[in-house]
């Protein structure tokens, strides 16, 4: 029997969901374009359509189709992650995926989208479960869509809650864009890395769009101390890669990193395994190879940008100095020409006096030459006598 403290009766569930719808902006913006209906009315109608499915159907008979038709409840909710932040997961504990996503600061999970927040921590329970009364109720839960990971016998997607999260995961996968991540965790109690019946395998793999996803990165980690390690070169990852290639992804779009230090560090927080000590010391000094390469590329890129900026700055300074020098030379030349013109205009008498002086000098020189010639002639005549 479900504990009564976790049960929300039918009369209260509508209020809870309408409040979440308004507070968390669950619905697509275009639903509010009709100014004849308020936001409260739109959310109330949406919640009414949602709860009507639960009230009019048995839990085991509800499927994703019921949420899609006729009111397109899944399509009208916002399951779109930010670009380069979508994180898919399989075989991972609830705590690990939340810690690694850093509560949406590093990555975004499907239940961290506005649409996903509508039913997070709430699991539908059929009216047969609560004191045999025919009433709608919800049970508080940490991971309502957990299909027991690798337990293939419970991988069917019937039931109200599972059907909702299957549809939500489908919309989330369709909307993922840019650099997209998939987190795997190999655990000793499960024979394979992920179940073929998991939501990731059945739904998300089939709806990730190669035209929207620029890079698909597998983050593979193994439980500390496990003997049968999964690697990026292993058969499981290679088969999964081939599935994506068959769907239109290119080989260069898919990359894999195993046992990255950020994920391992989360395992080592509460672990006394001797591997953690060596691991933490090694990564405290060096970090992972990929992170070191990324840091180096970023560092050299920034250095190159600084050099380019300094070069442009020097070119601009030299060009400015050259322009200023040419401008000063032109200004000085203009000043000299203006001074000459002013001198000629301000002293016209001096100019005429100078011309007259030159004429007098020339006349004097001519007179002297004539006198000398006359004296020479007289001297020649006296000698002849």
TrEMBL record:
GO cellular component: plasma membrane
Pfam family, one: Rib_hydrolayse
InterPro entries, per the entry: ADP-ribosyl_cyclase
An example molecular function term from Gene Ontology annotations: NAD+ nucleosidase activity, cyclic ADP-ribose generating
Domain of life: Eukaryota
Keyword Lyase belongs to the record: no
Gene3D superfamilies xref list: ADP Ribosyl Cyclase, Chain A, domain 1, NAD(P)-binding Rossmann-like Domain
TM region positions: 292-313
Keywords, in A-Z order: Disulfide bond, Hydrolase, Membrane, NAD, Transferase, Transmembrane, Transmembrane helix
Presence of keyword Hydrolase: yes
Family, similarity comment: Belongs to the ADP-ribosyl cyclase family.
Protein name in UniProt: Uncharacterized protein
Species this chain originates from: Chaetoceros tenuissimus
Lineage summary: Eukaryota, Sar, Stramenopiles, Ochrophyta, Bacillariophyta
